[in-house]
């Protein structure tokens, strides 16, 4: 157990360094984009004086390294800052209360997590089941059909899948709403109904990976002697796979599931825009459009953090699920 | 299809007389009730109830269109009517304006409306450091005086006959005095609808304010919900699947799909929004009026309307005044593609052929690059070689517009002639994108000042006609087309016969004017 804690500690420190690098890269990348917040927000109304005024108010006229260090110092104290858009309003208005980036992101992030949760609740059992069945009947029509279907869906762009689903489930047969504008105060079931189409789209995207890994890991084990033994004992093929093979195949499967869960948080940008789902992905797109660096930075940190934590969880779980790693000699 | 413009209606003065005599008969059959949902573009996470920052449809429809009021309002037929102001009168030089305010109006928090609210709300726009888009309008007021609880007097720096029109600007909303910050935070206005919830960039819900001063003549829905849908396809889907009752900005390319659906209809009006190619008249060769004239005859306008707007627009005549303006000179001869005339003016300029650069980007308007290429093709027949430079969309307005000598531009147009001209054609105005000044036409600049202070409508019409003619003949801006406002409405919703053409969605006032059929 001590070894595991040590691993966790090590990985968390490394994760912290990764976040730092990510924040620096994003900061430089956003600044390298043509135009800045002042130009983006003013649009056609961009006179040199107005641009200067906004840059001065937001500190955009100071050198790059200075801005980064100020942001970093605040971030290390747990302060993600205030978005440029909000600051711009304040300088317009005088003293209305400001919404911090954290307050702006929190409800959006909760929505994204909800979508990821619904998707995971559908996608993980479905792909495990498909994987197990495909392994059981490998080479059969079912195996091939499942493979072709999932590979087709993972190979199609997300927006295309989204439109296909809209066409079949919203336009031709109005089962689910094509608009997923969930909001505070909605009942859980309303929310679930509205979230269904984006969740199904994401399910189509992530299923192939998980299902094929499950299938491959199980088939890999089916050649091992202990499976042979189980079969010779006269156990049913289903029981051999679920009880004997699956537990030993868990490590790689968990790894893939964790990676895909991370994708559900970071890869939702397109799906959220298509379905008008008020999640973090939409906020991210809006913020990049107007070069609102504090929000972009915060979103990227959340994305990177999700990847780091879920990867860590995957590694820990695969250690825990493997007795050889759990009890090292 | 609803294609009746204000002009078409007012063309018969009888109709106008009937309208004036019976009030607003178009609402006679309107029914109350229902929850109206619209999917609108132009929403941002940075949106707020601060009118000074409003620039796109979502907030204009939510604020001026539902929750807040202004002093005056442009009715669907283009006439100016009072909203919070009941009546107004001007001194003979159009310098001193007295507004009589409506009595018995309350804000949504119960505070009663009076002169202080007007004065304080206007002062917001000229406050220290405020970056209001309406600052030029308000800073033209030299003095604001409260004559009584319900009477305000404005003294302007110089006479302006359009002043009451300017008070209908969507930036100039009336907030309760002494609590403006709170009103901006919560959305407290005097409008027909009271905010229930507002999530910037996502959604706005409001319910009908009981006992509103507009009574039964407007605001027929029990509640309204505006949903932010910036994505074109998502907006179309929302209308087609019946999740919203109306959407703005139909994508022309997919319009046929909407037409095929029997449950929805398409509304189209031609307003003042126009697409232009602006040249800097102080940069050679554009400083030569003959070069400009040669360019005016080298463009195929109808082809642009057909191919860029897919027919949803009308040809422009190189002046920025559109059919939604009062003094639109429809009788001016239309500029046509004419290679002979173009070559003639080129000769007058002492040139056999002309090589120029034209900067374009789809940031200027959708299809700007294609439009520039069409221009290139037609100009070639006239001996003018246009080299189209595709500029990056990012930073287009800061790096290309007003800087490159010839570039594509978008204008939404203005409610009044003077406003449009003084924004983009007055000597020294910051957005004068053709550097149009007295070196080009001293007469134009003189007329601009004269017409501004002229209260006699017929005299103004003559002056504005002459100004439109000057721009048409000599101006530095090619205006090949005016783009229609095209929107989709469910057949569950009934709309008045005349749809406002000043802005999208019935001047953004669908919550006020539409009802469930």
UniProtKB/TrEMBL annotation, chain A:
Membrane topology note: Multi-pass membrane protein
Domain ABC transmembrane type-1 stretches: 109-314
UniProt xrefs under SUPFAM superfamilies: MetI-like
GO cellular component: plasma membrane
Biological process (GO), any one: transmembrane transport
Pfam families noted in UniProt: BPD_transp_1, BPD_transp_1_N
Major site of localization recorded for this protein: membrane
InterPro entries in UniProt: BPD_transp_1_N (IPR045621), MetI-like (IPR000515), MetI-like_sf (IPR035906)
Localisation per UniProt entry: Cell membrane
Bilayer-crossing regions: 12-33, 113-137, 158-176, 196-223, 249-275, 295-320
Family per similarity comment: Belongs to the binding-protein-dependent transport system permease family.
Protein name per its UniProtKB record: Peptide/nickel transport system permease protein
Species of origin: Meinhardsimonia xiamenensis
TrEMBL record, chain B:
Signal peptide residue numbers: 1-20
Entry's Gene Ontology cellular component terms: ATP-binding cassette (ABC) transporter complex; outer membrane-bounded periplasmic space
Localisation: Periplasm
Any one biological process term the GO annotation gives: peptide transport
Coiled coil: none
Transmembrane segments: none
A Pfam family of this chain: SBP_bac_5
InterPro entries listed in its UniProt record: Peptide/Ni-bd, SBP_5, SBP_5_dom, TAT_signal
Coarse class of the protein's main subcellular location: periplasm
One example GO MF annotation: peptide transmembrane transporter activity
Keywords: Signal
Ranges of residues in domain Solute-binding protein family: 80-428
SUPFAM superfamilies hit by this protein: Periplasmic binding protein-like II (SSF53850)
Family according to the record: Belongs to the bacterial solute-binding protein 5 family.
The name this protein goes by in its record: Peptide/nickel transport system substrate-binding protein
Organism of provenance: Meinhardsimonia xiamenensis
């Amino acid at each position: 157990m001590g070894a595991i804690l040590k691993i966790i500690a090590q990985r968390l420190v490394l994760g912290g360094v990764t976040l730092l690098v990510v924040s620096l890269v994003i900061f430089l990348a956003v600044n390298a984009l043509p135009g800045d917040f002042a130009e983006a927000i003013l649009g056609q109304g961009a006179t040199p004086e107005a641009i200067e005024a906004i840059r001065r108010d937001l500190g955009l006229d100071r050198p790059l390294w200075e801005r980064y260090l100020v942001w970093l110092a605040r971030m290390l104290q747990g302060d993600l800052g205030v978005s440029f858009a909000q600051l711009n309003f304040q300088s317009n208005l005088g003293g209305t209360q400001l919404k911090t980036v954290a307050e702006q992101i929190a409800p959006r992030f909760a929505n994204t997590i909800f979508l990821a949760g619904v998707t995971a609740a559908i996608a993980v059992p479905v792909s495990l089941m498909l994987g197990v069945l495909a392994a059981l009947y490998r080479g059969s029509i079912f195996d091939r059909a499942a493979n072709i279907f999932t590979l087709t869906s993972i190979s199609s762009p997300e927006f295309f899948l989204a439109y296909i689903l809209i066409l079949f489930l919203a336009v031709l047969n109005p089962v689910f709403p094509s608009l997923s504008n969930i909001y505070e105060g909605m009942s859980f079931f309303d929310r679930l109904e509205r979230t269904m189409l984006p969740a199904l789209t994401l399910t189509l995207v992530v299923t192939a990976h998980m299902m094929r890994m499950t299938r491959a890991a199980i088939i890999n084990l089916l050649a091992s002697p202990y499976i042979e033994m189980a079969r010779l004992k006269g156990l049913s093929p289903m029981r051999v796979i679920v009880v004997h093979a699956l537990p030993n195949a868990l490590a790689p499967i968990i790894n893939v599931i964790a990676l895909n869960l991370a994708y559900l948080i970071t890869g939702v940008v397109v799906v959220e825009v298509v379905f008008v789902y008020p999640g973090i992905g939409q906020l991210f797109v809006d913020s990049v459009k107007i070069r609102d660096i504090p929000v972009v930075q915060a979103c990227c940190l959340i994305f990177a953090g999700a990847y780091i934590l879920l990867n860590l969880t995957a590694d820990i779980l695969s250690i825990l699920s493997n007795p050889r790693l759990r009890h090292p000699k | 299809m609803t294609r009746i413009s204000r002009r078409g209606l007012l063309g018969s003065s009888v109709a106008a007389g009937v309208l004036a005599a019976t009030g607003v008969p178009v609402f006679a059959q309107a029914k109350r009730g229902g929850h109206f949902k619209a999917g609108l573009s132009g929403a941002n996470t940075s949106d707020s109830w601060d009118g000074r920052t409003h620039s796109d449809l979502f907030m204009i429809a939510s604020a001026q269109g539902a929750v807040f009021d202004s002093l005056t309002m442009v009715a669907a037929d283009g006439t100016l009517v009072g909203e919070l102001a009941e009546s107004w009168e001007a001194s003979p030089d159009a310098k001193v304006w007295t507004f009589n305010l409506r009595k018995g109006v309350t804000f949504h928090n119960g505070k009663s409306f009076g002169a202080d609210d007007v004065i304080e709300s206007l002062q917001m726009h000229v406050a220290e450091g405020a970056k209001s888009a309406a600052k030029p309008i308000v800073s033209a007021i030299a003095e604001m005086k409260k004559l009584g609880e319900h009477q305000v007097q404005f003294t302007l720096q110089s006479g302006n006959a359009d002043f009451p029109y300017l008070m209908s600007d969507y930036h100039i909303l009336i907030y309760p005095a002494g609590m403006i910050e709170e009103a901006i935070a919560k959305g407290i206005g005097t409008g027909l609808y009271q905010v229930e919830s507002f999530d910037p960039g996502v959604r706005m819900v409001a319910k009908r304010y009981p006992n509103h001063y507009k009574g039964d003549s407007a605001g027929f829905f029990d509640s309204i919900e505006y949903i932010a849908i910036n994505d074109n396809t998502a907006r179309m889907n929302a209308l087609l699947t019946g999740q919203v009752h109306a959407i703005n900005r139909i994508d022309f390319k997919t319009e046929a799909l909407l037409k095929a659906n029997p449950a929805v209809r398409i509304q189209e009006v031609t307003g003042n929004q126009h697409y232009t190619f602006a040249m800097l008249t102080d940069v050679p060769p554009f400083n030569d009026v003959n070069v400009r004239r040669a360019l005016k005859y080298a463009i195929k306008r109808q082809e642009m309307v057909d191919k860029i707007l897919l027919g949803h627009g009308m040809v422009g005549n190189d002046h920025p005044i559109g059919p939604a303006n009062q003094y639109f000179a429809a009788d001016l001869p239309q500029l046509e593609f004419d290679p002979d005339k173009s070559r003639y003016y080129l000769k007058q300029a002492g040139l056999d052929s002309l090589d120029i650069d034209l900067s374009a980007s789809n940031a200027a308007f959708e299809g700007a690059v294609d439009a520039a290429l069409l221009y290139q093709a037609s100009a070639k027949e006239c001996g003018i070689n246009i080299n189209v430079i595709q500029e990056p969309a990012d930073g287009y307005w800061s790096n290309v517009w007003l800087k490159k000598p010839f570039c594509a531009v978008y204008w939404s147009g203005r409610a009044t002639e003077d406003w449009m001209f003084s924004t983009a054609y007055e000597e020294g105005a910051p957005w004068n994108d053709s550097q149009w000044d007295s070196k080009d036409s001293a007469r134009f600049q003189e007329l601009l000042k004269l017409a501004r202070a002229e209260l006699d409508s017929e005299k103004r019409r003559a002056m504005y006609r002459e100004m439109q003619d000057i721009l048409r003949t000599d101006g530095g801006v090619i205006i090949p087309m005016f783009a229609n406002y095209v929107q989709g409405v469910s057949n569950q919703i009934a709309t008045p016969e005349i749809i406002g053409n000043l802005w999208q969605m019935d001047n953004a006032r669908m919550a006020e004017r539409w009802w469930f059929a």
